[in-house]
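Support request from a user on the community tier.

User writes: "When I paste my structure tokens into the form, the page sometimes reloads and wipes my input. The last time it worked, I copied everything first. Here is what I submitted, just in case something in the input itself triggers the reload:"
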């Protein structure tokens, strides 16, 4: 079991992860409209990973016998001024998610809910990677932003990303 407070917060986190997926799908749509298919691919995979994050929490709540309650997913922004703005917003969004994971971690620690602390550890590490990737994409784009050839090369690099499903088995490593 988990406390009622923790249960509510974990359910909110499911919502935030699905919102992340929704936001990244909207960003994918923007890149498709700009004919930057490699960037679009990167965000497509990012959205898949966010759904995996949501499902890890969904499965966890079920395993500890806590009620799963899915809330409404807010509409993401649909207009972006430039690829740079999208990449900047991604960095900001991931920092926000990290904060939210830390709040959950703090609550589970305060409550001495060790199993939930252990469960959340994976998310703490995952956020290091999420922020790192988002920052790297932004920095790479800034290097080449005035050079169309550079943008095309970067787009090709982004096209190479492949999706590996995150499941509760491989997330426990
Ligand atoms: Fe996530
Ligand atoms: Fe993320």
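"...and here is what came back when it finally went through:"
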């Amino acid at each position: 079991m988990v406390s009622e407070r923790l249960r509510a917060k974990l359910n909110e986190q499911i919502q935030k992860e699905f919102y992340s997926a929704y936001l990244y799908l909207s960003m994918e749509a923007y890149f498709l409209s700009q004919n930057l298919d490699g960037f679009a691919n990167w965000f497509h995979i990012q959205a898949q990973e966010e759904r995996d994050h949501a499902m890890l929490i969904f499965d966890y709540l079920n395993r500890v016998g806590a009620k799963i309650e899915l809330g409404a997913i807010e509409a993401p922004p649909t207009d972006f001024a430039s690829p740079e703005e999208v990449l900047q917003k991604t960095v900001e969004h991931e920092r926000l998610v990290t904060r939210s994971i830390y709040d959950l971690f703090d609550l589970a620690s305060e409550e001495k809910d060790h199993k939930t602390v252990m469960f959340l550890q994976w998310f703490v590490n995952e956020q290091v990677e999420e922020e790192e990737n988002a920052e790297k994409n932004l920095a790479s784009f800034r290097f080449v932003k005035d050079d169309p050839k550079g943008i095309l090369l970067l787009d090709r690099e982004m096209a190479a990303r492949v999706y590996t499903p995150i499941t509760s088995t491989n997330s426990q490593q």
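Agent notes: The reload is a front-end session timeout and is unrelated to the input. Residues 60 and 135 are 30 Å apart (CA to CA). The chain has a mean pLDDT of 97. Escalated to web team.
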